[in-house]
Structure formats: C-alpha cells, structure tokens
Amino acid sequence: MAIKLEYVARETGTNLKRNFTITLATVMTVAVSLALVGASLMAQQGVERATKRWQGGIEFIVFLNPNATDDQITGVGADLEANPQIESVTFVNKDAAFAEFKELFRDSPEMIESVSPEILPASYRVEPIDKNADIVTALSEQYKTKPGVSEVVSATETIRLVQRFSEFLTRGILFVAIFLLGASGLLILNTIRMAMFARRREIEVMKLVGATNWFIRVPFMVEGLVQGVIGAVLAIATLAVARPTLEGWLPPGDQIPLLAGVVPQSSDMFPIYLLVGLVGCLVGAAGAGVAVTRFLDV
Amino acid sequence: MIRLENVSKAYKGDTVALREANVNIDKGEFVFLVGASGSGKSTFLRLLNREEVPTTGQIFVAGKDIGQLTSWKVPYLRRNIGSVFQDVKLLTNKNVNENVAFALEAIGRPKHVIASQVPAILELVGLSSKAGNFPHELSGGEQQRVSIARAFVNRPLILLADEPTGNLDPATSVGIMRLLERINKTGTTVLMATHDRGIVDTMRRRVIELDRGSIIRDQARGVYE
C-alpha cells in the first residue's frame, strides 16, 4: 500500500512540533558532533596536504639543478641507492613535481600559471634507516656538494611536530565526536520513543482498524531522519563559515610556507560535507529504526 | 464466518482463559458472550482479531486459518473486523468527524471516499449534527455511537463489541443495542460480550456462556442464565 507523502509530512510535522524542546536539544547535539567530525577531517586533510612531501618516512629531499644532465641525475640516484644508511629513494621528475604543485595550489590558478614543469626541479626523496636528527643531518650534508644538486632540504623538527600534533588533535576530536554521535543516536531514539508514547492511543486505534506496521512506523522514522538531516545541515553550515574565517586568520602561505595548505581548499570540502551529511542521515535513521522496531510491534 | 476448533488459550502462570472451545458462527448472526468477569469473554474476542494467538487449536475467520497469518497480513484481517470497547477509545484531540475519518485514513483510503463515507455513517448512528464536537463535549452514549461509527465505517464483515453498554444507563443502552441490531441487519456478524442481563433477555439471540474459560452453554434465542 502506498503511503501518502502528505500524511507522512503532516504526522512528522506534528511530532516535531509537539516535542519541540527535546527535538531542538537533539538537533543541536547532532550538529555539534557532526561539526566536530568535519573539523577533525579538515585538520587531517589540511596537514596531510601541507606536509605531503614529508610523508612515508621521507627525511630529506635532494633537489637537482634544473639544467642537470641525465648522467648527473642518474649518478646522484645511484649514489643514494648504494648508501647502506638509506632505506629507500624515490625519484620525482619535473612533471610529477608540477602535478604535485598543481594539487597543492588547486584553488589558486594564478600560482599555477606562473609555474611550468621546466622551472620546477626534479628531486630524490630519501628515507634513511635511522631517523635520528643528527644522523639525518650528517647524511644529507654529504649530498649538498654532489654535481647536479642544487640544494638538500631536511624535514625540520617543526614539520614533525606539526604532524604529531595534528595526528593527536585529529584523533582527539574524532574520539569526542564519536562519543557525541552515540549520544545523538540515543537522544533521537528517546525523542522518537517519547513521540510514540505521546501518540500511544492513536497507535492503538490505528492497529485496531488495520493500519499496516509501515504506515504507523514511517512518520516516526522520517522524524528521526529529519533530526539527523537538520543537524547535518547545521554542521555543514558551521564548517562552511569556519573554513574561510580560519583561512583569513592564518598568515599567508608565502610567509610561512608550511602553513600554505593547512586550511583545506574549498574544493576539498565537498567530500567532507558529503560524509557529514551521510553520517547525519545514518545516525537519524539508526536511532529511529531502533526505536520503531523495539517499541512499536503488533 | 467464524469457527473455533479446540481452541485453548493459557497466559503465563497457568491461567487458562479459554479451554477447548469449539464454536461455529455463521454470517449475519448476532451472538452474546456472557459470563462472570475473568470467564474468558475478552480473550475470546481478542483471539478473533489476533490481538492474541491461541495456545492450541485453530481459528478460522472468513474461511482463513488466522493462526497461519504472517504478521504483515494481520492488518488486512483487522480491516474486516470492527472493534468496539467499553472505554470507547476515542482520540480526545480529534472531533467526531476526524475520529471516524481517522479509521479510513489509517488504512490509506482516498480522500473522496472518506468525504462520502464519514457523513453517511454519522447519519446512520444519528450524530450528523455533532460532527464538529469533541469527545468531551458528548454524552457517554454519544461517545459510544462515535466509536461504533468508527468501527463500522469500513463496512467490516464482523463487529466485535466488548461490553459496549458497560458504562451506560439502561435507556441509553437500548439505543446502542438498536444501533448494533441495525448494523447486524446489513449482514454484519456481531459478537458482543456483556454483563447486561436485561439486554440479553429482551433480545433473545444466540447466547454463549463462559465459565472459567469453558463454554458451558451455547443456546439459540437464549437468555442471560
């Protein structure tokens, strides 16, 4: 039997109005927890982008002269490969460097236009076996004077610190967010339960005259879903406002290069919004689903 | 229309509400269920619309073994069975019209059907002039009429009434009984559980008497005792 849209909308509306304060509390909790989920994802993504070159144990990068000969390039590479203190070496050619640059400055076309693959240097990314700072420094020094090398850049303590701190922050926020999401789910469940209790006489009559289970359940399920969705919309709005604000606060990238990509570009936000929205729907549907199956059987 | 074969119903703690009941009720019959409180009258009625499931035995309604119904088919069984109670079970926040219309809305009837059926049934129960009133503005008898209208608006094959006159004075009760008789004359099978000796004795219909769960009398054109 088809369930009329108008009926569902009216019944859901009545339920939401009748329990307005508890609905509001639920929606706010959902919004806060989802905003935290989003913030955690933003922090993670921002730091990941800003320190992309330094992931996977890379401790120093040997930049080659743009006009280095092929022999010089392979010579440096072979030298690095042969070094017993080095775990692995990755060669990044000009095109790959340009691709990475484009990715990092995706939302700043003027930056990308000012750069071409030719002017970006090729490089070797090096992961040493021992990551002790002194050893890394000594090791990297050896390559500064090799023919064809323009400079050698080490991962500074700052970068490591930023990575560790962001990891801690991301996990911390996510941990709190998961707890709050659990609370949101339970709040939705109880809101629905209260709505069902408020309408227990109607439900009794509906069962008596032969309304199907789904006919009785759907308005309550939609109610839970609506709470989750409104919470998600609020969370997304918060994140959308917070991102440019944060970008405005931080010093521009040309002063402190490390911070260049810490705030995710707006184009990176879409998957985060999508995830936040989906989690909102999921929490709402799960809370309501449990409520109707546990407390609304014939 | 209704057939019980060796039906027993036991609740937790060895309470036997119905014991080896064998009853056959034809279409269009009017049957009184009598007996003391706790004799199993309500259980008898609740078994018929599957609010309860028998412990043993089979129940056939309109030829179907309702013990075999899957739970999602139960609502469709109930659409053929109207129910009326002593405590009317009207929705206090809805007026007479809305209370009756609610029964049709709940089973997804289209608006134009509701718009034509509800006034017709209110006419039948004699409450056309009170369509806009709320339950608390009605007398006990009027409230019971509304509840009968709600039970009958979908034109069920069977009407179950559990002490519908239990809260009413004798004069009002007579009015309710006339209404149930009228409904019965349309071909609807009516089963009514009652304590009301006067009603049973004047109507002289089939009487099934229960005592502690056992059928001790099944008499055509019977009296209360």
Descriptive labels:
heterodimer; A: 298 residues; alpha+beta; four-stranded antiparallel sheet; 4 strands; B: 225 residues; alpha/beta; six-stranded mixed sheet; 7 helices; 10 strands; globular
Write a structural description:
The complex is a heterodimer of chains A (298) and B (225). In chain A, 69% of the residues lie in helices and 8% in strands. Chain A is built from 10 helices and 4 strands; from the N terminus they run ααβαβααβαβαααα. In chain A, strands 2-3-1-4 form a 4-stranded antiparallel sheet. The two termini of chain A are 18 Å apart. In chain A, 34% of the residues are buried. Chain B is globular, with a radius of gyration of 17 Å. In chain B, 33% of the residues lie in helices and 27% in strands. With 225 residues, chain B is of the alpha/beta class. In chain B, helix 3 runs parallel beside helix 5 (140-152) and helix 5 (140-152) runs parallel beside helix 6 (170-185). Chain B has helices at residues 41-48, 74-78, 96-105, 111-125, 140-152, 170-185, 197-203; strands at 2-11, 15-25, 30-34, 56-61, 64-65, 81-85, 158-162, 189-193, 206-211, 214-219. The chains are: A alpha+beta (298), B alpha/beta (225). Chains A and B meet through helix 8 of A and helix 2 and helix 3 of B.
